[in-house]
Amino acid sequence: MYSFRNDYSEGAHPKILELLMKTSLEQNTGYGLDKHSERAAMLIKKVMKHEDVDIHFIPGGTQTNMLTISSFLKPYQCVIAADTGHINVHETGAIEATGHKVYTVPHVDGKLTSEGIRRALDWHADEHMVQPGMVYISDTTELGTVYTKAELSAISRLCREKGLLLFLDGARLASALTSTMNDLELSDIAELTDVFYIGGTKNGALFGEALVLVKDELKKDFRYSIKHRGAMLAKGFSAGIQFEALFDGDIYFELGEHANRLAEKLKKALEAEGVEFYATPCSNQLFPIVSGACVEALEKKYEFNIERVLGEDRYAIRFVTSWATQESAVDGLIKYFKTINR
C-alpha cells in the first residue's frame, strides 16, 4: 500500500536530519532564543525581503492557528473564514474553545473572497452579535487552490479599510508559492498580511511552523502568549535548526516544487483518462471525481481520502503528493488507474 493520503507521512529531508545530527551535542539556549533559531529567522527575513518582522517557531499548524487567533482577537470578536477553512473543519473546535466564534461564508473554489467578507460584515451589524476582528485564509487552500496577487490584494485592502487583521495560514505555502498558477512572492505576502506562517511540517520538516508577525502592534509580549498556550518548546532550537536547514539555500522551495511537479504529472494522466476534478488542480492536492467501483479498486493498492460523496455514484477523492513522493509511485498509480478506469 502506497500512501497518497497526506504530505506528512514521511520523516524529514536528509539535510535537516544531517544538521540535527551535527548539532545534537551542542549546548543551546532554550525556548527559541538560540543561535540556530536566530539564524533561521535571519535567513527567512532575507528571502522575504523584510527585516522588520518577528518570527517565532511553533510546533504545529493547529497550535499556530489557535495561538494567533486567541492572542489577537478581543473576547467578543470572531474570525471570518471560508466554510472549507482548516480552522472550521479540521481543528476539533480549537478556536471556539478559546471563546472565539469562527464565522464561515461559502467558498469559491476553496477560496474566501472580498465579497464574502463584505457579506459577513453586513450581517454583523451591532453589539448583539460577535464583532468580526480577523480574516483567516490559507494558501494553498483546503482544496489545493491558490490565491492570485489580485485576489489577496483585494482582501488586504478590504481588511485595512474595515480594521480587520488578515491572517494567512501557510501550512502548504511552499506548494502555493511554487505552483504554476501562482504570481505571489513571499515578499508580497509580508506586504499584504498582518500575520502569516510558513509551514514546515508539510514540507520536509519533522515538525514546526514559522509564524511571522508583520504588524507592529502584534509583536509586543507575544512570547507570553506562546508560553501561556503551551507552544513554547524548551528545546526550541530543534525547530530552529530545521528551518535553518530549509532556508540555507533553496531547499524549502525545491521541496514544494517537487510535490507540485509530481501532482501535475498525475493530473495530466487523469485528464487524459477523461477524469474531471472537484477543484481546480493547482498544487500538490488533487481532487479527481471517480466512481464507487474505482474507489474500491484504488483502495486495494493505495491510501487516499474521500473528500466528498457527490451522489449518483460520484466521489471526489483526494490524492496528495509530498516532498518525498517517489516518481515511480506516481507512475505506478497512473498505470494502475488506466486498468481500472473502464
Automatic annotation (TrEMBL):
<dbReference type="GO" id="GO:0016829">
    <property type="term" value="F:lyase activity"/>
</dbReference>
<dbReference type="InterPro" id="IPR015422">
    <property type="entry name" value="PyrdxlP-dep_Trfase_small"/>
</dbReference>
<dbReference type="Pfam" id="PF01212">
    <property type="entry name" value="Beta_elim_lyase"/>
</dbReference>
<dbReference type="InterPro" id="IPR015421">
    <property type="entry name" value="PyrdxlP-dep_Trfase_major"/>
</dbReference>
<dbReference type="InterPro" id="IPR001597">
    <property type="entry name" value="ArAA_b-elim_lyase/Thr_aldolase"/>
</dbReference>
<dbReference type="GO" id="GO:0006520">
    <property type="term" value="P:amino acid metabolic process"/>
</dbReference>
<protein>
    <submittedName>
        <fullName>Threonine aldolase</fullName>
    </submittedName>
</protein>
<keyword id="KW-0663">Pyridoxal phosphate</keyword>
<dbReference type="InterPro" id="IPR015424">
    <property type="entry name" value="PyrdxlP-dep_Trfase"/>
</dbReference>
<comment type="similarity">
    <text>Belongs to the threonine aldolase family.</text>
</comment>
<feature type="domain" description="Aromatic amino acid beta-eliminating lyase/threonine aldolase">
    <location>
        <begin position="29"/>
        <end position="274"/>
    </location>
</feature>
